[in-house]
Amino acid sequence: MAMDMTFLGTGSAYPSPHRGASALVLRTDGDCWLFDCGEGTQTQLMKSQLRAGRITKVFISHLHGDHLFGLPGLLCTVSLNTNSDPQQKLNFVDIYGPRGLRHFLRVTLGLTGSQLLFPYAVHELEPTSDQSPEEGQLSKEMTAESGPPHPQEQPGKTITLDVSSDSYLLFEDKKFVVKAFRLFHRIPSFGFCIQERDRPGRLKTEVLKALGLKPGPLYGRLKAGESVTLQSGRVVLPSEVLEEAIPGRKVCILGDCSSVLGEGPLRLCSGADVLVHEATLGNEHREKAVDHGHSTPEMAAAVAQACCAQRLVLHHFSQRYKPSSLQKEGDEDNVSELQRQAEEALQDSGVEVILAEDFLSLPIPLRRPR
Amino acid sequence: MAMDMTFLGTGSAYPSPHRGASALVLRTDGDCWLFDCGEGTQTQLMKSQLRAGRITKVFISHLHGDHLFGLPGLLCTVSLNTNSDPQQKLNFVDIYGPRGLRHFLRVTLGLTGSQLLFPYAVHELEPTSDQSPEEGQLSKEMTAESGPPHPQEQPGKTITLDVSSDSYLLFEDKKFVVKAFRLFHRIPSFGFCIQERDRPGRLKTEVLKALGLKPGPLYGRLKAGESVTLQSGRVVLPSEVLEEAIPGRKVCILGDCSSVLGEGPLRLCSGADVLVHEATLGNEHREKAVDHGHSTPEMAAAVAQACCAQRLVLHHFSQRYKPSSLQKEGDEDNVSELQRQAEEALQDSGVEVILAEDFLSLPIPLRRPR
Ligand SMILES: [Zn+2]
Ligand SMILES: [Zn+2]
Ligand SMILES: [Zn+2]
Ligand SMILES: [Zn+2]
């Protein structure tokens, strides 16, 4: 199954003509999952190879505007374009994010008379009080849902921290288990861990033939891990007729943070194929970065190393860092210096460092059988 | 006093890489007044010659997302950039728009923990029930202001229709009288009439000298329209010592509409130097346009003619119309055809037709004395 990740915005604080506000798409078999949706994301999507109409899930790491202000408009435009393209199927859109997100969407869509042609649900993560300074926490008064729900709003879940695993279970299906974990920022922020399930290896057709088994439903049951008893009484174990399993990939996408909270996130992200971490400012601005709830390349590298990630992707750069393509010789703030700083911190660790830019598309290859 | 108008977005329904969502800036002596603020307006502003930090007033014609979704982000970015540029003075921002706008801003800024360094007030226009179909009207439940106001939110006015003039008085000061008027659209929509006050003509210095008057405070009083009594008892009338007055300019900017409501708007816009009117679809799509609460070039032309406007500027084009610069020969939907249709409807009327494009800047020259 093909999997890739496309960065739609890699700037922090606000969108600019050179860097969009935070947004990235993880694509699996054509389904698009959107992580954060800063203002202008819909226009960035139009410029990319991706189709907004394929978005089935949205994950909002935290409620800062540079990660959220593009969401109402994106939903409206998806609906408008669905309308004009009858080929497009109407997706149910599941939206995950911190408490307050449901009210935000209800008010922004409601007051603007925005009609949607598809149903959506907002599943809210309940933050804990140690995810931000006190002034960054929303009062119950502010998130109380006043006013009628949007006609397309379906009931959403309230998801609380599972203390034993130090994480939030967002959903699991046949292909994926998706969890969230806590980060420390100016307001409560979350990271997401997308764990693909291991898939059974290929059927050994030679062995099956030798056992006298012809292609049919039994093949499916063996592949699904069931033992099968032949008419002769012989029990065939899946392990006899299957190649080695293909381990699932793991993609971890962290929201804005100056640190992860607790050990849970590191366990959860352990061995990630890709870890996406912010690096708002260079190491030389560490104090300022931390004051604003942000990280430097060195801090991002420490997280990647603690998780034994294979690849660390940096993004969410201060708008002072122009994209490499617009960099001029002698420019003071050089984004490639951020990469160098992370690489320096990771030397000999084997972690590869990648600098995200708007529209960078990153394939996430299948793992080899163990 | 220099006055000009810059179009930041001329597309309808949503922003695209080729046309921004609705926004334009009227600039008078460096002060910027923003009319509508679709998603991406802040990025369009960055690409223009204008400075977002000079915005002192915002006017929202109606609450559709393509006119509003950029406002929370714009305010945040103005604040951030004010912060980093201590030269910039902190403006009080007055925001005018339909009922519901105050709640929209309170919720979007509040839930996102958006800090602003400047105070703002939202002055709400109370629509009448004939401005839209019933389903386009907001219930009191939806606009009820729940939750605490933003720390920077100052009390705003509620402005109701002045029945005698069929208009809403937004404010008046030494230089301007600004009113709003009612339009018919899918949801309540407004137009704005910016009337510059007439200014006294220049002092006739020869005459003043002959009267024995030396430069000083008396000059100012005469210029302000006061009569002055000399020590000799001679009364000097302003009309004796002033050149002819310079008539104030009139700029009318209409929100989305399929018609203006009543005769008041036409009287108010009478003789406008510039009338900005939407033309979402060509004449051949009139039925569809009206169904969606929009206008064709012919309909816009009829309003301009009824007002005896000097110039009609068309904007808010369906995204099917590419900008002229991207138009290819043989393209089906040609935006210059919209101009032709308006010109055809206005032939012999003397009204000039201008097609807005993103970043078009239009000077509004001083009127000549009558
Ligand atoms: Zn951010
Ligand atoms: Zn943030
Ligand atoms: Zn519109
Ligand atoms: Zn509209």
The overall number of domains of chain A is: 2
Task: Name the beta content range of chain A.
Answer: 15-25%
Count of helical stretches of chain A? 11
Secondary-structure element series of chain A: EEEHEHEHEHEEEEEHHEEHEEHEHHEHEE
Supply the CATH architecture of the largest domain in chain A.
4-Layer Sandwich
Shape of chain A: globular
CATH domain topology of the largest domain in chain A: Metallo-beta-lactamase, Chain A
Instruction: Return the CATH class of the largest domain in chain A.
Output: Alpha Beta
Largest interface: A-B, 47 and 47 residues
| CATH-assigned homologous superfamily of the largest domain in chain A | Ribonuclease Z/Hydroxyacylglutathione hydrolase-like
State the assembly state of the protein chains.
Answer: homodimer
What radius of gyration of chain A results from the CA coordinates?
22 Å
Cα(first) to Cα(last) distance of chain A is: 18 Å
Small-molecule binders:
zinc ion
| Class derived from helix and strand content of chain A | alpha/beta
Q: Specify the biggest β-sheet of chain A.
A: 9 strands, mixed
Instruction: Please state the average pLDDT score of chain A.
Output: 94
- Residues in helices of chain A, as a percent range: 10-25%
